[in-house]
Amino acid sequence: MELKARRKTPTVMIGNIALGSRHPVRIQSMTNTPTADVTATAKQTIELIQAGSEMVRWTINDDSAAKAVPEIVKILSEKGHGGIPIIGDFHFNGHTLLEKHPSCAQALAKYRINPGNVGKGGRRDENFARIIKIAIKNKKAVRIGVNWGSLDQDLVTRLMDKNANHKVPKSSREVMYEAMIQSALKNARYAEKLGLKKDRIVLSVKMSELQDMVTVYSRLAKKCDNVLHLGLTEAGGGTRGIVSSTAALAILLQQGIGDTIRVSLTPQADVPRQREVEVCQHILQSLGLRYFQPSITSCPGCGRTSSDYFHTLANEISQYVRQKSPAWKKEYPGIEKLMIAVMGCVVNGPGESRHADIGISLPGASEQPIAPVYIEGKQIATLKGGNIKEEFKRILDDYIKKKYS
Asked: What are the respective helix, strand and coil percentages of the chain, to the nearest 5?
């Protein structure tokens, strides 16, 4: 299946980061520190930025958090990260906080509004309008982020009542899909009516089940040309969260849908927050949409690779590439597209190594203890003995210098 062309959208500027079909799919993440804790939030934000997050979102839920925003933004600037846009995540009281703390409103690059949480009844539109007017005044972008778990209940009730009167009513799930899409579009059009231009609006319709999320985003994409932020919300943690998010985002990105993404993982004590960013990078690189560091092809191992040496070398080469990648990217433009193969036996080892830019085929359990090395399809060396790892690293370094200098 071919990767479909991105759906056409306007360019939306979030600080100095451009979103939209003429620009790369951008990666964003979110801190889980109390924003009022200036030190902790600054530290985690910098860690996310260094991992590759191009935008970082903070919870702005009370006065202390709003007061902390300008202070943390100043710290980021002083530490050389002033160009990374910070997004304010508002629920329930965003209109009050932005009015009460103008320095917070100015320091943020984008406001995230949940239409289901800005108020009820007549107050809903009024509170929404107050945030939009502040965004216009400060020349900020807005993400109208509809969530399955906090959908506008007045809208849901109206659609459910209307559906109940049909001769052949739709399923409640179909009505919820319609409510998600209507909420996003209705509020986007209202924001435009208030004066916020389309090139300052981002939409999202996040859901927690993969098929629901894919269905709603696919339908929304056909009904508008707004920039879309993709995410599977409440995906879970660990393997489940990574797999579910990867599957959902990959389906949509393959169809050309999505301009910015986040992988939302439930925190785990032994897993850094930066894992969200790493997963995003792997998704985009696997699809061929963006490249972040050299790719390493290594086989899964079997009875032919019973020796620990293959597993150790594959792991050490992977670590070596990860450690060297930041410096390589600065010194050698294009290095992120390098393909390296570290294979474990004669079955697929030579073939995969020839297909890579540079590869090594290690001996299987019953093979001769030699390791042929291939560069751009040709065997250039045969390594043996106890220094295979060091010799292959040297060959790799030399190849990179020659190819990318």
From this structure: 50, 20, 30
